[in-house]
User: Fold CPBP family intramembrane metalloprotease from Ureibacillus terrenus.
Amino acid sequence: MKVSNKLIVLLLSLAFIFVSTFFSFEEKKIFWHLYTFTLLVGIAIAILFGKFKDELPTWKYILFGIGFGTITYGVIRLGYILLKFVDSGSVKAIKKFLATYGPNNIWHYLLLVFIIVIGEELFWRGYVQNALKQYFSPILSCLIASILFAVAIALGGSIPVVICAFLISVIFGLLYEWKQSMPLVIVAHEVFVLLLFLILPFIRY
Assistant:
């Protein structure tokens, strides 16, 4: 596929993800259905056009994934604690966002763990970030992919959540560039969401 064709596919893919994510946030009652569908399509796009790296043995990506997922959780938790002291309005905005879109039953958690986390990593890291490296440096590609992901989340209307999404995306994007392992970032992301929503939740909504 020529570079120009690859760029067209990238732009069309991003357009679909943005439009579908917009409708997902608009239709609050069926958000989980629509967002899951969005990422299932994202997974298909990533499989067709992406390139996944896996340069670590299984025990290493599991070990590193648990470690970096825990570190990411710690960073977000610390940021939330500090935010409570400096901007209570942002804390309320985060709680409102999670009350509307956060997981609240076993079905949501299953979708989050088995489709949404995997879909976000395969699409934004495995496809978008790698595709951008044809035009930019790896670090800049990571930052641009993280900005694009944050823009998608911004459709939900919560600036504090957007900042959080951007920060998490940068962490996982840099981790992917450093260790060159898609399973690693998936494990890290899984550990992060399990800690955040199930094991050690610190946001009550």
In short: The longest helix spans residues 58-86. The chain has one domain: 3-199. Residues 3-199 form one domain. The radius of gyration is 16 Å.
